[in-house]
Amino acid sequence: MKASIAVLPLFLAMCSAGGFAQAVKPSITIGTHVLTLGMPESTVLEQVGNDLTLRHLPPGSKQGDETNPPDSIWLVEEKTGNRFVLLGEVSFTAHKLSSVSRNWEIEISSAKSLFYAIDAASKSLEQEGFTNCQLSTVDRDYTVENGSISTRDVELDCGMKGTSISLSSSDAPDTVPTSASVMEWLHSK
Q1: pTM of the predicted structure, to 2 decimals
Q2: Which element (helix H / strand E) includes 11?
């Protein structure tokens, strides 16, 4: 009896130790801002808007097959020189953060930077326990004025969090000939 009583405090101490059977709250970091689902809209917009540029998308401007579209969507951008770089996107339903995505920076001519972006997004999934994932691919070709656009997408869907990798190429004038992106996303199910 005394032995089991003596073991109880040790067991409780082990269970409360960091990293022992504790779930990590899923998050995405944009800039220096760690964002988690359910955060108040006013808090997210104030914090992110302090050092990054927020651009509100009008209702219905986002394409997709969402059955319950968010109430408000904001692009998160950073001004570098005379251009804006899209860092990610935040969406809100009932004034709470319901979806967030982060675009990992890659250089189109650098296989190394593409690998590091995929590696960083994958490690984020793994560190938060998202290891039971479904892999899917989609290839699309579009005809546009004076040319065509071809996209290749790889999606790693781990439930409420995942990674999307895209390659787009075009022969149409006034379009970027080739672009690649790695996006980490988190949304409520």
Answers
A1: 0.79
A2: helix 2-16
